[in-house]
Amino acid sequence: MTKFAVIGHPVAHSLSPVIHRANFESIGFDGSYEKFDVAPEDVEAFVRGKQRESYAGLNVTVPHKLAVIPLLDHVDESVARYGACNTLKFEKDGTITGYNTDVIGFVEGLRGNGFELAGKSVFIVGCGGAGSALATACCYEKAASLVLADLDDVRVAALAAKLNALGTATKVAALAEPTVGASLDERKTAWGKSAAVAELVVNATPMGLHPGEPSALPPECFHSGQFVLDIVPTVTFPPTAAAAKAAGAMATDGLDFLVAQGAKSFEIWTGLHADRAAMRAACVQV
């Protein structure tokens, strides 16, 4: 049996085992897929341990997509370009290769809903591993403009500077208002003003993973004519996407995103074609 897993902190919400097991069953693959909650300080020891236990690969979710990069012996172009890693492949020679399949899930998901990034205005809240990769993809996919927001002012400013240095045609700005010390509600109000004028709004924060959590953005910033992607992959429609949909925007959650990136991870690990339809159907049935 070929062994895989996803690591994160927290990770209880993850539907990755559901979609991968559905794929295994559909194509007749002898595999197992688990999920492990790994504290940040334990990431290296855990990854090395699974490598010794003959796991074939790991998926990596919040907050470890940057922390695993120093552990890589080989860096795929996707990690080098997008600056985050969500897929580890344990090679037969004892080395580790890192990949980023989040961007594939992002672009494929948008196109599947009839949305092309080229020439569009984009607002992204959340500049961690996933958010930074998606922001970079917007530049390479020729978005007209991109505004970034995050609770960490230093992180968002650094990402904006990095993306502007790429030399693409996309105009990138960091939303630095209000200043340090502002409450979350004050920040959301500022974020909402920028989100309201964007054609694509992306929630790349984990807000909405837990029951009862509010939208990452104020509901009044959403309106018809927008496309809103909430990458939170939960069985119930996550709150940011739900608020957008209620306001008349076209909104989608993180399930298509999850399936696309997960399918690509499986194909990297095994060289086999994943059954995306079976993976998507398994999410709906949970």
- End-to-end distance, in Å? 25 Å
**Average predicted confidence as pLDDT:** 93
CATH topology of the largest domain: Rossmann fold
Q: Helix amount, in percent?
A: 25-40%
CATH class of the largest domain: Alpha Beta
Global morphology: globular
> Which residues sit in consecutive blocks of at least 5 with pLDDT less than 50?
none
Note the beta-strand portion.
15-25%
CATH architecture identity of the largest domain: 3-Layer(aba) Sandwich
Output the strand order for the largest sheet.
2-1-3-5-6-4
Q: What is the domain tally? A: 2
Query: How many β strands by DSSP?
Result: 12
Count of individual helical segments = 10
Class from secondary-structure proportions: alpha/beta
Largest sheet: 6 strands, mixed
